Amino acid sequence: xxxxxxxxxxxxxxxxxxxxxxxxxxxxxxxxxxxxxxxxxxxxxxxxxxxxxxxxxxxxxxxxxxxxxxxxxxxxxxxxxxxxxxxxxxxxxxxxxxxxxxxxxxxxxxxxxxxxxxxxxxxxxxxxxxxxxxxxxxxxxxxxxxxxxxxxxxxxxxxxxxxxxxxxxxxxxxxxxxxxxxxxxxxxxxxxxxxxxxxxxxx
Length: 203
Known about the structure:
Layout: H1 4-12, H2 24-34, H3 37-40, H4 52-56, H5 61-81, H6 87-93, H7 102-146, H8 149-159, H9 166-184, H10 186-202
């Protein structure tokens, strides 16, 4: 069994391991069996869709009581956040009765809100990463139209602050620099922009 600490260390180094996802039911059962309060704060995140009876059959009496208590807390959280769910139906059908303190609710609610913010940040990071990949793809396509592989390699070294050999440096000033200056010329960019716009009307 690979420890969470080792997995975290590997991810920091850019090495990611692929594991199958838990179903909601599997995650809920696993968390309840850990007997870890910090982990239990995450349970309302999994209660938007689950099989109540399937989970209950896997729990001991103490865990069943804890689970029912968390369902009641999650029901209040979902109502407060306006999230559609069937928790009230489960509570009524199974005659779940639970009493929890204001402090207990606030602890679960605070963690629920914090997880939502973090999930949004993670989604934004994924979007930014995808946008960067698309940008790099477009850049590579454009570079291939204008430059040979040898020229692209030399420009890549310059971009990454790598030192050029004397031969590469001479080649840059002889064959690449003039193209770079032309592409950066605002007059040329305006001219090509007009060509592209006018071409649409000429077709």
